Amino acid sequence: MAAIGVTVSHAVEQPEPRQATVEEASILGIQKAALVTHIRRTYYSDQGRPVETADIVVPAAHCEIVYEIPINR
Fold first, then answer.
1. Are 36 and 61 within 8 A, CB to CB?
2. 49: helix, coil or strand?
3. For residue 18, how many C-alpha atoms fall within 13 Å in the half-sphere facing its CB?
4. pTM for the complete prediction?
5. Per-domain boundaries in the chain
6. Which segments constitute the UbiC transcription regulator-associated domain (predicted)?
7. d(CA 18, CA 5)
8. Dist. CA 69–CA 73, nearest whole Å
9. Strands 8-19 and 35-45, bridge-based pairing
10. How far apart are the C-alpha atoms of 34 and 26, rounded to whole Å?
11. Which of 68, 14, 12 lies closest to 37 in space, CA to CA?
12. Is there a contact between 52 and 44 (Cβ–Cβ < 8 Å)?
């Protein structure tokens, strides 16, 4: 984004548990309808405008999702 003059200030993630689609199961090498975590990630500019999105799907049985949240004082 910096190459096109956009400063990314933060991202927001929305994790949601659900069952894998047939296509996702095939790509991930898991059984159809296995549990996955679907993460919708949106990056925002320093002016508050959404500038990029990502949909991430991870098998629930194969991954642990951990967040570190900084606390500003």
1. no
2. coil
3. 13
4. 0.81
5. 8-59
6. 4-60
7. 37
8. 13
9. antiparallel
10. 11
11. 14
12. no
> What is the model's pLDDT at position 67?
87
CA-CA-CA-CA torsion sign (12, 16, 21, 23)? positive
Query: Which amino acid does the sequence have at 22?
Result: V
Classify burial at 19, counting beta carbons within 10 Å of its beta carbon; exposed 0-12, middle 13-18, buried 19 or more.
Answer: middle
Measured over the CA atoms of residue 40, residue 41, residue 46 and residue 52, the dihedral's sign is: negative
* Three-state DSSP class for residue 24: helix
Q: Is residue 73's pLDDT more than 90?
A: no
Q: Which two tokens stand for residue 53?
A: 């999105």
Exposed/middle/buried for residue 14 (C-beta within 10 Å: 0-12, 13-18, 19+): exposed
Model confidence at 69: pLDDT above 90 = no
- β partners of residue 43: 11, 52
**Residue 63 identity:** C
